[in-house]
TrEMBL record:
Keywords for the protein's UniProt record, in alphabetical order: Membrane, Transmembrane, Transmembrane helix
Membrane-spanning segments: 9-33, 45-67
Species this chain originates from: Legionella spiritensis
Chain ranges of the YdbS-like PH domain: 65-129
Tree of life domain: Bacteria
Designated name of the protein: Transmembrane protein
């Protein structure tokens, strides 16, 4: 029987709100074009509808993707139609890399790449607070 303390969740991180920047920006520009230039109303309407669909898809991705750090494993979950869940035992993690742009450093988001034994790479983009995630994972790896 498993000890309940072995699988305690240490930290859960989701995706960053910056995912919504481009769909919302497109909607704002499309609305402004439609209001300013009446011959472009049809194009503007199409762009607004496209931006709304893009925002909906982004929201689903935002809501259903996460990184869960437990005492003995890391769990990556992404997607909804094509759901991908990856469980990585702490003992199988070799390196944890973070890729951040300047905006990512300012707004605290980035890509986290976990390399497992054998060179297998698992990544999650637009993760909120990737440095905190790496710190927790490294701390738990050293405790084992």
């Amino acid at each position: 029987m498993k000890d309940k303390n072995e699988d305690n969740v240490v930290y859960v991180a989701g995706l960053h709100w910056i995912l919504f920047f481009w769909p919302v920006a497109l909607a704002i520009v499309a609305i402004a074009l439609g209001l300013k230039f009446s011959p472009l109303k049809e194009v503007s309407l199409f762009l607004v509808l496209f931006a709304l669909a893009w925002t909906a898809v982004t929201w689903v991705t935002f809501h259903f993707s996460s990184l869960t750090i437990k005492k003995k494993q890391v769990i990556l979950r992404t997607g909804i139609l094509v759901r991908k869940t990856t469980d990585i035992p702490m003992t199988k993690i070799e390196t944890i890399d973070i890729s951040q742009s300047v905006l990512g450093s300012i707004f605290r988001y980035g890509a986290l790449v976990i390399t497992g034994t054998g060179g297998t790479r698992h990544y999650i983009n637009y993760l909120t607070r990737p440095l905190t995630c790496r710190r927790y994972i490294e701390q738990l790896m050293h405790e084992l």
